[in-house]
Design goal:
The complex is a heterodimer of chains A (175) and B (556). With 175 residues, chain A is an alpha/beta fold. Chain A contains five helices and seven strands. Chain A has a single domain, classed as 3-Layer(aba) Sandwich (Glutaredoxin). Helices cover 41% and strands 19% of the residues of chain A. In chain A, strands 2-1-5-4-3-6-7 form a seven-stranded mixed beta sheet. By secondary structure, chain B is mainly beta. Helices cover 6% and strands 52% of the residues of chain B. Chain B is globular, with a radius of gyration of 27 Å. Classes of the chains: A alpha/beta (175), B mainly beta (556). The interface between A and B is large, with 63 and 95 residues.
Amino acid sequence: MKRIVLVFCTLLFCGYVTSQDLNKRNNLPSINIKNLEGETFNTKEISNDGKPIIISFWALWCKPCKKELDAYNDNYDDWQEETGVEIIAVSIDDARSTAKVLPYVSGKDWDFEVLLDPNGDFKRAMSVNMIPHTFILNGAGEIVYQHTSYYEGLEDEIYEIVEKVASGENISGNN
Amino acid sequence: MKKALALIVLSFLFTPMVKAQGFLSKSEVHGNFELDGMYYQADDALGITDSIINGNEFGFNGFADIIYTLGNFSAGLRYEAYLPPIAGFDRNLDGQGIANLWASYTTDRFSITIGDFYEQFGNGLTLRTYTEWSLGYDNALKGARFVFSPIDGIILKGVYGVQRYFWTKYENNNRGIVKGFDAEINLNDVFNGMSDSKIKLTLGGSAVSKYQSDQNPFYKMPKNVAAFAGRFNLGINKFNFSSEYAYKINDPSAINNYIYKPGAAFIFSGSYSTKGLGIYAQFKRVDNMSYKSDQAVTSNALDINFLPPLIEAHTYMLAAMYPYATQPNGEIGFQIAINYKVPKKSKIGGKYGMGVSINYSQMNNIDRSAPNDTAYIGQSGTMGWNSDFFKFGKQIFNRDLTIEIDKKFNKKFKSTFKYIYQKYDIATIQGHTGEPIVNANIAIIDMTYKLTSKKALRWELQGLWTKEDKGDWAAALIEYTVSPHWFITIADQYNYGNKHSNEKIHYYTGSFGYTLNTMRIALTYGRQREGVVCVGGVCRQVPASNGFSLTISGSF
């Protein structure tokens, strides 16, 4: 009996160590991209203290993408207050327009973080083909929902899912 | 006790297995795919007869990309099929197979990739491999890529390999071997004292070399062509400056008409950003900087480097009529942009504010003079030309003034107004020799009305007025969307100002589509006007066509 308890405890301990290791970071691929200051940013560093994250791929040449981000920005204060959600907009603009992204974002007065993926490394690793392509991550950094294209009103659907994720509802089947 | 000890040892031995199992459960497969099918039909107005179509009714492009990840390890493959390629895509794509196969291992400090990979050094002036499905463009390197970060803030990269050339296998040095090295250092990460500084400085440098055996019967070619570049990015409070200069040794090629002049490219950007306002200016000069891994190739393939066209990328139907493409043999120009948000609750801004953006860009030919007394400008086998670095040539390739206003009137109604003036050297850029320079005025109104929280109606009215090329155009579009699944669009572009009455053609299209999360299906019927489709500076010619097109795409 003692032995069984011992083995059980050891295994439990191991399991604990393992799960801790795994939960430490998000479930995204490890890709070096850039922030708007031109500094390298590893996508493993994307985190939000156990709260949901929206990652949206966009580009300056993509009108629906910009509409989607405008819609998010209009609601961002309320959303953050209610669920603590963080939005990260990943621009896939290439060298043609990467330097234009920062002044554009300032001109738009968007409040969320914008990252640059000029050669599509993160985009490819995330299997993004058409943009806009939006992901929702749960508190454990797992992708629980994704959607391509933007139609007026999509932000309501996105936020419904964010609310479910924030309240701990399991929606991974929705993916 | 012994037994208990043995058990503990055993269970610890067992631990890696448990871990490995946890690890295995972390393995993931994901990917994406797209199928583009075309069915062409005869159309007398477009000059497409049954005999032209005969045997070419169908075009089919498709790919599927699958990535497998297990902890630090990942591997992927991409299958592509062009059976046969859709009209406008390079005929060399005809065929099918595994176009891309790779495996990589990545830790915080180190990454190695073997197989087909994509990489970009700085702005890409010395090296950029990438793929763009909508153009059928893929210049992936097949070989190996190493990335090493000895300390935070320093990233070293090394690559070597040969580039993809459609389906042609690399053998017997039938194209060049590419080697490259890049180093980037972020001073704020490297020096503790700078970590909180408001001055953010990143420096970088790259060296690339191409080896190709000399197969030219007329000229002695350099077997190794090296290119170097240095760059920086400097952020000071609200200002940001970045620049890159690249130099390439002599590299006679079919693109530059076999001249022995070294190449150079220079980009400088500066911007000022504050809440609600962004100002941006950029200068660019390219001189003989085409860099391909085969000297004889002139098509959109085997590019080692990337020369970004610094110009507004237009996507509205008529605004995209005259797209600019970088002139690798020489161009000099600048771009200025202002983005401003008129504040909410101001007189002009109204309840929601109003977005204003102005963009002006101009690209000229570089100034050239003969390389010596006995040669003419650009003569094969000579130094090609002399050129003053900052002097603008007289020939204007492109000029573009774009003014855009975004206004939300109320919760349901918003619109975009756009005015564009373009000057476009169609003879040089599209190769329509002898045609006069196009001067075009374009106006666009794009309005969206939200019917309910999920249903919306959007319509566009567009006009393009020019005395040159095909004359005046008008276009209209109406789109109905039901979030998050449905859209239906009807559009028409009418060339009412064409000088030839039989070419006053309506290019009508109707499309509808359905989206479920990441799966999307769209069907379009109608006429495609002849033109140039450009994405990120690479363009392809699209012939006029009539028929059905079906796109199915998804990711998982």
